[in-house]
Design goal:
Length: 307
């Protein structure tokens, strides 16, 4: 009898351990956090041009959120004195359980904080560093997030974020092997050259793009990276049904200000895109949800995100 009770207790303990080590779902992008050296210019860009709604920042009292939907936004923080050429603070991903994700990463040997943070809006989050030292947040949104009314927003769905990556193999140990991100597409400016590698979240269709090149296709990241070049790599993308139509609306409403492309173009992935830049150089890419031409280099291996 006693041996049966001990066996039952042992199995129950194993079940609890397995549950604690199960990875909670990662459902999509939460936000991109960037720095500003001119808060007024940045506010004008994200509200008047992008059409996001300005809100307070439950994570950082010095920050501001520019919201596109109830669960996606751009977080803007004051430029720290030690930022160097970097204008990106972190990327952030939505998960169903911040505490569960923290325990999962800890069980896998990853360095995590002692506890999750709690926001006044009911959100929970924590941050870690990826293999190349990039700050990554995992955010559990509030159970009942406040609705966002943004009639002038260029879009309401951030479909991907990207940043400078030196080693695809090293980053894959975290995003693919540990977190379960799935291949989506890869390509380059020239056939046979690898400049970009995209992988979707394990439980949704938003994706992360490794930016492996600055300069000639396949040449890698130069040691003398400039802030302007880094801002091209560090970016977010808003999904569009039709980038050409959105561009026409921007032009007709006199919202084409600052640095931007001359017009829409079809990228190597076969999707229309149009690039704009915030006052500190972070790129915002408007991108069609679906390709209109056959992509170069590789096929899409997962479903596209939707509006």
């Amino acid at each position: 009898m006693r041996s049966g009770l001990l066996a039952g207790a042992f199995l129950a303990a194993l079940a609890v351990t397995a549950a604690a080590q199960a990875r909670p779902k990662i459902t999509g992008i939460s936000h991109l956090a960037v720095y500003t050296s001119d808060a007024a210019a940045t506010e004008h860009y994200y509200t008047a041009i992008v059409g996001a709604v300005k809100a307070s920042d439950p994570e950082n009292p010095q920050g501001v959120r520019y919201r596109l939907s109830a669960t996606q936004f751009v977080e803007v923080l004051p430029l720290p004195p030690d930022a160097g050429i970097n204008r990106l603070d972190h990327t952030a991903w939505n998960t169903v359980s911040a505490e569960g994700m923290r325990k999962y990463l800890a069980a896998k040997g990853w360095t995590v904080p002692a506890h999750v943070e709690k926001g006044s809006d009911g959100s929970r989050w924590f941050a870690v560093l990826d293999p190349e030292g990039n700050k990554v947040e995992f955010v559990e949104p509030p159970k009942h997030p406040a609705a966002v009314v943004a009639p002038n927003a260029l879009g309401r769905h951030i479909i991907h974020v990207g940043f400078l990556v030196h080693s695809r193999e090293k980053e894959d140990t975290f995003y693919r092997a540990l977190l379960g991100f799935r291949p989506y597409w890869f390509g380059g400016m020239q056939e046979g050259k690898l400049d970009w590698v995209s992988q979707q979240v394990p439980d949704g269709h938003d994706w992360l793009e490794y930016m492996l090149t600055s300069g000639p296709s396949g040449s890698g990241i130069p040691a003398n990276m400039t802030p302007r070049a880094l801002g091209v790599l560090d970016h977010l993308s808003i999904g569009e049904v039709s980038v050409p139509d959105t561009y026409k609306a921007l032009a007709s409403e006199n919202r084409l200000e600052g640095r931007h492309d001359q017009g829409p173009k079809i990228g190597k992935d076969g999707k229309y895109q149009f690039n704009m830049y915030d006052p500190d150089g972070i790129r915002l890419e408007l991108m069609n949800f679906h390709a209109t031409e056959k992509p170069c280099c590789s096929p899409f291996t997962a479903e596209d995100p939707a509006e």
